[in-house]
Design a protein that fits this description.
The protein is an alpha+beta fold. The protein has helices at 2-42, 44-55, 89-92, 99-106, 110-118, 134-141, 165-168, 180-184, 186-189, 228-244, 287-290, 300-310, 344-349, 353-361, 365-374, 401-408, 417-428, 453-464, 534-537, 539-552, and strands at residues 56-61, 68-69, 75-87, 126-132, 148-157, 194-200, 206-214, 222-223, 249-256, 262-268, 318-320, 325-328, 331-334, 341-343, 432-433, 448-449, 484-494, 497-511, 518-525. Helix 10 (228-244) runs antiparallel to helix 20 (539-552), helix 12 crosses helix 15 (365-374) and helix 14 packs across helix 16 (401-408).
């Protein structure tokens, strides 16, 4: 009985354990079935999200920036494809033994790279290198290091380099305009990146393009008014002049008289926008549009224009400059020589300060101010160039006799090279002030009347005498073409007054004088090679640039090359005590 009872006890215990085990297995099976149903039906969205997070990516489709060309279609700024290396710090942190290889490939400090990775573990995106050549990026990607990815971007390239650097400006690493025309027309040039969803493998290679989320919109192209041939010519001649004259800086602006288009604009010292590492804030400002200076005698033609417009003077008017100086208040204005009684053409040809003071002081201040204002002084031009200065033209209500006399030969007011060139272009276009444009225009735009045509014709005739054999600007003469222009030499302002050994040499004018096509201004800042006058330093540069530009544009000559110099017919009359004018 005891043995039987023991066997039954063992058998019951075994059955109990079997049922317990079966119950546990059944419960586990039910749990697995429930979990499977839960994952497939209830938590399906969560699982899909987790899967996508590991293999599905939304990638940007880089849109390239619009191309900038000159008026003839020559490329000035283009966007070239490059690749950037980025990392998911969390993924790379799981393979820290690969960081030394990565640092070596990227030519980065290993410790610095490790610090960047470990201090950004909460991020999923971190740039390691920007704008690599696609071949370089592919070599790094081929290392197979976890968490390393590439993205396609575009880098701006400027084929003309520093020849067009100041004019165009540059973009930053994200291809956004920062200076110059790149900034002014950033809204036009900038593209809009697209987006697409893809499936990638563990090495970042695209396995499948899932969907297009947003198509990329490339930037729009921009056609400038600039003629690259004339731009190169102006750059070459200005650079040579700055070198030969040992000057600190310089600027040249060339405008189309008929359209107001900027055909060339260069500065020295220049910079190469392709080399971002060498760009310094002091070097990339466009002096031709942003820097102001006192123009010296190059402003005199516009005071003469005010006199002609007033009706008090004409080409036959005589100004008595004896005895060679003129006292206004406590200030004495002198000429280099006693020129005696001379006509207005000689006042300009000899750059007589005394003659200009007589003319300016005989006119109502408001008339002078109105003429200068209509010519664009004291206001920014319509160019829209970023950072352009308005110069300085005090209101006539603040003028006093000594100030008027001082301004008549270029002190007490300030202009930019662009403003001065625009004023000469207005004279050349028979008094029509046309908008300054950096974009190519299809025909002469509507302008505003600044001066009467008769005034401008007389003034251009007078300015021809400046470039004649006895004038201060004779070195601006261009074989085969009649030139009208004016020299300027200004002492530079210093603390407490004016320097006696630092000068600004200027020449501005138009050509050909019979039917002006081009207006140009040349500025040479602080020449130190022994010559400093505008007629000696700036005038020859004007001759080479404008002469070359006229030939490039196939403008017909208006004077036989070997013809003797003659006094312009519009200037005749009046007794002249100096040597006979050409």
């Amino acid at each position: 009985m005891k043995a039987r009872s023991a066997r039954e006890s063992v058998s019951g215990s075994f059955r109990w354990r079997v049922w317990l085990l079966m119950s546990l297995l059944g419960a586990s099976a039910l749990g697995l079935v429930w979990r499977a149903v839960d994952l497939q039906l209830v938590d399906h969205g969560f699982l899909a999200k987790e899967g996508d997070a590991r293999f599905s990516r939304v990638l940007d489709i880089a849109a390239h920036r619009g191309t900038i060309t000159d008026r003839h279609g020559e490329p000035l700024a283009v966007s070239t494809p490059v690749d950037s290396i980025w990392v998911n710090p969390g993924e790379l942190a799981l393979a820290t033994d690969q960081i030394p290889r990565l640092a070596q490939a990227l030519k980065l400090d290993r410790q610095e790279l490790t610090r960047r990775i470990t201090s950004n573990l909460d991020r999923e995106f971190l740039y390691l290198a920007r704008h690599l050549q696609p071949a370089e990026a592919e070599q790094i990607k081929a290392l197979g290091i976890p968490g390393i990815y590439t993205s396609r971007e575009y880098r701006r390239y400027y084929p003309a380099g520093e020849v067009s650097g100041h004019l165009l400006g540059f973009t930053n690493v994200d291809d956004s305009g920062q200076e110059g025309l790149e900034l002014a027309f950033d809204h036009w040039l900038a593209g809009e990146d697209g987006a697409k969803r893809v499936i990638q493998d563990r090495y970042g290679r695209i396995v499948q393009n899932v969907e297009s989320i947003r198509p990329a919109r490339p930037g729009r192209d921009l056609v400038l008014s600039v003629d690259l041939r004339i731009q190169y010519l102006a750059y070459r001649e200005l650079k040579a002049a700055i070198r030969d004259q040992r000057a600190s800086a310089g600027s040249v602006v060339v405008l189309d008289v008929d359209s107001g288009e900027v055909l060339a604009m260069v500065n020295q010292p220049a910079y190469n926008p392709n080399d971002r590492e060498q760009i310094e804030p002091s070097s990339y400002r466009n002096r031709a549009a942003t820097d102001i200076f006192e123009p010296g005698s190059s402003i005199k033609p516009f005071f003469v224009a005010a006199g002609l417009a007033s009706g008090k003077y004409d080409s036959h008017s005589i100004i008595d400059t004896s005895p060679g100086f003129f006292k206004v208040g406590v200030k004495i204005f002198e000429d280099e020589h006693d020129l005696g009684a001379i006509n207005i053409a000689t006042v300009l040809a000899k750059s007589s300060n005394v003659g200009m003071a007589h003319i300016a002081l005989s006119l109502p201040p408001q008339e002078i101010w109105t003429t200068l204002n209509h010519l664009g002084f004291g206001e920014v031009t319509t160019s829209g160039y970023p950072g352009e200065s308005a110069g300085l033209l005090p209101n006539y209500s603040q003028w006093r006799p000594i100030g008027i006399a001082t301004m008549s030969h270029g002190y007490g007011l300030s202009v930019t090279p662009l403003q001065l060139a625009h004023a000469y272009a207005t004279i050349g276009s028979s008094g029509v002030s046309r908008p300054v444009s950096f974009l190519r225009v299809d025909g002469p735009p509507q302008g505003t009347r600044a001066l009467e045509p008769t005034v401008c014709r007389e003034l251009v005739g007078m300015l021809e005498s400046v470039v004649a054999a006895e004038g201060t600007g004779k070195l601006a003469a261009i074989p085969g073409y009649r030139v009208a222009g004016k020299t300027g030499t200004a002492y530079k302002a210093t603390a407490g007054g004016y320097s006696t050994d630092r000068y600004m040499a200027v020449f501005g004018g138009v050509a050909p004088a019979t039917d002006p096509r081009l207006a140009a201004v040349v500025i040479i800042d602080e020449p130190t090679a022994g010559q400093h006058r505008g007629g000696e330093v700036a005038a020859p540069v004007f001759s080479r640039i404008v002469g070359g530009a006229l030939r490039l544009l196939a403008v017909a000559p208006d004077k036989p090359v070997n013809a003797p110099e003659e006094l312009p017919a519009s200037v005749g009359g009046g007794s002249v005590r100096t040597a006979a004018l050409p």
